Every structure is written in C-alpha cells, then in structure tokens.
Automatic annotation (TrEMBL):
<dbReference type="InterPro" id="IPR004360">
    <property type="entry name" value="Glyas_Fos-R_dOase_dom"/>
</dbReference>
<dbReference type="InterPro" id="IPR029068">
    <property type="entry name" value="Glyas_Bleomycin-R_OHBP_Dase"/>
</dbReference>
<protein>
    <recommendedName>
        <fullName>VOC domain-containing protein</fullName>
    </recommendedName>
</protein>
<feature type="domain" description="VOC">
    <location>
        <begin position="6"/>
        <end position="120"/>
    </location>
</feature>
<dbReference type="Pfam" id="PF00903">
    <property type="entry name" value="Glyoxalase"/>
</dbReference>
<dbReference type="InterPro" id="IPR052164">
    <property type="entry name" value="Anthracycline_SecMetBiosynth"/>
</dbReference>
<dbReference type="InterPro" id="IPR037523">
    <property type="entry name" value="VOC_core"/>
</dbReference>
Amino acid sequence: MFNPAEFCWNELMTRDLEGAKAFYSAVLGWTFTPHDDAGTYWIARKDDTPVAGLFLMTGDAFEGIPPHWFSYIATDDLDAAMKAATDAGAEVVRPPFDIDCYRIAILLDVTGAAIGLSQMRADPA
C-alpha cells in the first residue's frame, strides 16, 4: 500500500462531515470510524480496510477554499523529495511534520496544484 512515487492516501476536505459520510456510505458502501477525539478526522473503510480520510475544514486557514479531495504521494525519503521539489520550483505550503506513523509535507507543484508528500516513519511513536 505504501510504494514510493505512488499515490498512497486521499482525504476529503469538507465542511460537512455528516453529509459526506452519508453520501459515500450510500454510493460506495463505506463505513467510518473517528480518528480523533474532536471528531474532525474520520477514516473511511471498505470491508474494514482503510480507503480514505475525511477532514473537517474549520477556521480561517480554509476560508475561500472549496471542499475537495486531497492526495498524498509516498516517498521513502521526504527530506530528499522536498529538496528535489523545491529545486524544481515547488512552493512549500507546510514543511514536514509528524502525524501518527507518517511524516508529511504539503506543497504546490510548479503548476500551482497542491499535493502532499508522505513518508512512513521508522519510529511510529
């Protein structure tokens, strides 16, 4: 599931978690489990296999941004991938940070498209 240079995770960024869960449950048969105590991130599952995340967009950081699907590409060396990306003209939106067993970063490619890069951490503490 985590192969470098391949898409490895997708998240729905939305302001309506309940509407999204109802829609994807009806259309795709997904079930959902909360990932955090605040209820702002949910894991979508198909036959108990995680298939996507749903993220509640709240606050000023998301003002003017429409709901959308956001994708991550796997890398085996996030620092090297970020250097290559910025050398190639990418703009860093959010530098690398740790979340669960992953280290991720968000950038804009040279066309302005937002993308996440992700590396599985060796120490998933």
